[in-house]
Amino acid sequence: MTASADKTAKLWKSDGENVGTLGDKQGNLGHRDRVVDASFSPDGKMIATASDDKTAKIWKLDGTLCATLEGHQDEVNGIDFSPDGKMIATASDDKTVKFWKLDEALCQSPNRTLNTYKTLKGHQERIISVKFSPNGEQIASASFDKTVKLWNKDGDLLRTFKGHNDWVWSLDFSFDGKTLASTSYDTTIRFWNLDKIETQILDLDGWLKKGCAQVRDYLKNSNKLIESDKHICDESEN
Predict the structure, then answer these.
(1) What DSSP letter does each residue of 58-105 carry, written as one string?
(2) 220 contacts 236 by C-beta, under 8 angstroms
(3) Of 21, 19, 16, which is closest to residue 3 (Cα–Cα)?
(4) Which residues are bridge partners to 111 per DSSP?
(5) pTM
(6) What would the pLDDT profile of 121-137 be if each residue is shown by its tens digit?
(7) CB 56 within 8 Å of CB 69
(8) What are 177-205's pLDDT values in tens digits?
(9) Measuring CA to CA, which residue among 65, 174, 167 is closest to residue 123?
(10) CA distances (Å), origin 154, targets 58, 124, 151, 160
């Protein structure tokens, strides 16, 4: 599944065959601006999309529009289903995370409009990503205010993780839900221990320099490489 600036999301087989496009046959019911994120429901029967048109939408796999989520005041950047499929969380440039309740009859009446169930406020800048924990009890959000926030499913703020030196772009929980990873424009990935609130830092620039130091002689002296490949580590020396 991919999201695009062409205002659609597309479904693909593993061999690259396009098997469906969401939004191309909906006329003015589809997104009116670029689609920036998409998420499958846990049962694989629905897809939710987030768009710069300030809305999120829920679709059947055949392209039928089930519902439009209206309530954000700015671009919607991130979207995620809860593990039980009963709720959606969205992240927006309006500095909020919103929860949306879903019911079993969601797609039985096409083109519904859903209103916000709950709005989470606390970030000081635009929010780019939002994720549910594997057990659905917690939600994490990543923001341009350089922080990651952890909320419970009732919308209460549990913790704010500080440490990144620039915008935080994305995040995800580990499979067991005990660790949260966040990526930032500061070129680091941070791993947050949700039990002890500790952090480990993966410095991408540092790893590149270490790796290049180990292969520098090979790059310069190997006769199996083309000339351009011999210089892939030149920038790490600066």
Answers:
(1) EEETTS-EEEEEE--SS-EEEEEE-TTSSEEEEEETTSEEEEEE--TT
(2) no
(3) 21
(4) none
(5) 0.81
(6) 999 999 999 999 999 99
(7) yes
(8) 999 999 999 999 999 999 865 555 555 56
(9) 167
(10) 22, 21, 8, 16
